[in-house]
Design goal:
This protein is of the alpha/beta class. It has helices at about 20-25, 30-45, 50-60, 65-70, 85-100, 120-135, 160-170, 175-190, 210-215, 225-240, 245-255, 265-280, 290-300, 305-310; strands at about 10-15, 75-80, 105-110, 150-155, 195-200, 215-220. The chain folds into two domains: about 10-220, P-loop containing nucleotide triphosphate hydrolases (Rossmann fold); about 225-300, no CATH class. It has a six-stranded mixed beta sheet with strand order 1-3-4-5-2-6, sandwiched between helices. α6 links the parallel β3 (about 105-110) and β4 (about 150-155). Bound molecules: adenosine-5'-diphosphate and magnesium ion.
Length: about 325
C-alpha cells in the first residue's frame, strides 16, 4: 500500500499485487463482467490497437471508433449487498496490470464513510478526488500512443451522493455533487487519460439519472444462483470430505427455499456460513455434514435491501 499526498482516499493500491490476484480469481459468477472490464481497459490503455483493428478489417479508420472513444469511462456496479461489487472493483486492476504488463493504481473513495454526507463536503471531496486522479494519470508519451500506466478510481457506496442530494435540496445546491462527478468523468474522457471510474451502489435508483446515463456499462450484481453456489461451495466442502449428495444438499438449503424468497449472498456464504462452520467444529471435532446442516439453520441469509425498508424513500 502506498501513501497518498492528501489522504482523501481510503486506500491507494498498486498492481500487480498477488493478494488482489487471489481475490479476483476467487470471485465466482462474474466472468462476463471480468471479460468486459479487461477488454475495455485494454482499449483505453492501448488506443492504437483499435486503429490497427479498424485498418485491418475495414481498411480505414472507422467513425465507429470515435463513438466508442467519446464515451465517459464510467462503469456502474449495482446490486444487492454482498455480491462482489467492491471485491471486483478493488481487484480487476490487477488483472489489467498483468495482461498489459503495466502499472495500475487503484484510488478508492468511500462516500458513506465520510461523516454526515453534507453536500458541500461531498462535492469538494469528489472534485479533489478527480483532480488528484487527473494529475496522477499521465497522457501517453511514447510514439505508439500506448499508455504505460493506468488508474482505477473507485467511488464506493456512491448512493451516499443521492443522500447528500436529498439534504441539499433544502439548500438549493442539489446538483453540486452530481455536477462535480459528471465534470470529473467528462474531463477524464476528453483528456484521453488512462483512467477508469467505477461507482458501486446498492441503490441504483438513488443515483442521479444524469450519472446513470453516462455510464458506459451498468453491471447488475445478483445473489448466486444454484450453479454459482455450487461452484463456490463445492471445493470447500469436498475438501472436508462431503460427498456430492451432501454438497448438493447444502447448495439447495442455501437457496430460496422453505418459503423464503431469497437465497444466500456470496458474503453470507463466505463471511458467515463457512466461518461459522469452522467455529462450530473447532477445537475438538471434525466438520461433518450434520454439523453443516445445523450451522446453515443458525445463519439465515441477509434479507435483500428493499425488504428491510431502510433508506428508501417513496418516489
Ligand atoms: N461473486 C463472488 N464470488 C465469491 N465470493 C464473493 C463474491 N461476491 C462477494 N464475495 C465474498 O463476499 C465478500 C463481500 O463482498 P463485497 O464485494 O464487499 O460485496 P458488495 O460490495 O457487493 O456488498 C467478498 O470479499 C468475498 O469474500
Ligand atoms: Mg461494497
Amino acid at each position: 500500500m502506498t501513501n497518498t499526498s492528501t489522504g482523501i482516499f481510503e486506500e491507494v493500491r498498486e498492481f500487480p499485487d498477488p493478494s488482489a490476484a487471489r481475490r479476483f480469481s476467487a470471485l465466482v459468477g462474474l466472468d462476463h463482467m471480468k471479460e468486459r472490464l479487461l477488454k475495455e481497459a485494454r482499449l483505453l490503455l492501448d488506443p492504437q490497437s483499435l486503429l490497427d483493428w479498424s485498418k485491418k478489417y475495414h481498411h480505414q479508420k472507422l467513425q465507429l471508433i470515435d463513438f466508442f472513444r467519446d464515451r465517459p469511462p464510467l462503469f456502474i456496479f449495482a446490486g444487492d449487498v454482498g455480491t462482489g461489487k467492491t471485491a471486483l472493483a478493488e481487484t480487476f486492476g490487477d488483472a489489467v496490470a498483468r495482461e498489459a504488463d503495466i502499472r495500475i493504481t487503484l484510488y478508492a473513495l468511500s462516500l458513506n464513510a465520510r461523516g454526515t454526507g453534507a453536500v458541500g463536503e461531498m462535492t469538494s471531496l469528489i472534485s479533489k478526488a478527480f483532480n488528484e486522479v487527473k494529475q496522477a494519470a499521465t497522457p501517453p508519451t511514447r510514439h505508439s500512443g500506448k499508455h504505460r500506466s493506468g488508474i482505477v478510481l473507485l467511488i464506493d457506496e456512491a448512493d451516499a451522493l443521492a443522500q447528500s442530494r436529498e439534504l441539499a435540496q433544502m439548500h438549493h445546491e442539489d446538483r453540486a455533487g452530481v455536477n462535480a462527478l459528471i465534470r470529473g468523468v467528462d474531463d477524464l474522457a476528453t483528456g484521453n487519460l488512462p483512467a477508469i471510474v467505477v461507482m458501486c451502489t446498492n441503490r441504483l435508483d438513488a443515483l442521479d439519472p444524469a450519472i446513470r446515463r453516462r455510464a458506459a456499462v451498468t453491471f447488475a450484481f445478483t445473489r448466486p444462483n444454484e450453479a454459482q453456489r455450487h461452484a463456490f461451495l463445492q471445493p470447500v466442502l469436498e475438501e472436508l470430505g462431503f460427498n456430492s449428495r451432501q454438497i448438493q444438499s447444502v447448495v439447495a438449503t442455501t437457496g430460496a427455499t422453505n418459503g423464503r424468497a431469497y437465497g444466500y449472498t456470496y458474503s453470507d456464504l463466505a463471511q458467515r456460513l463457512l466461518p461459522g462452520l469452522l467455529l462450530a467444529a473447532y477445537p475438538d471435532r471434525a466438520v461433518s455434514f450434520d454439523l453443516a446442516t445445523e450451522v446453515v439453520e443458525k445463519h439465515p441469509p441477509t434479507p435483500p435491501f428493499q425488504a428491510e425498508g431502510l433508506g428508501r424513500k417513496a418516489e
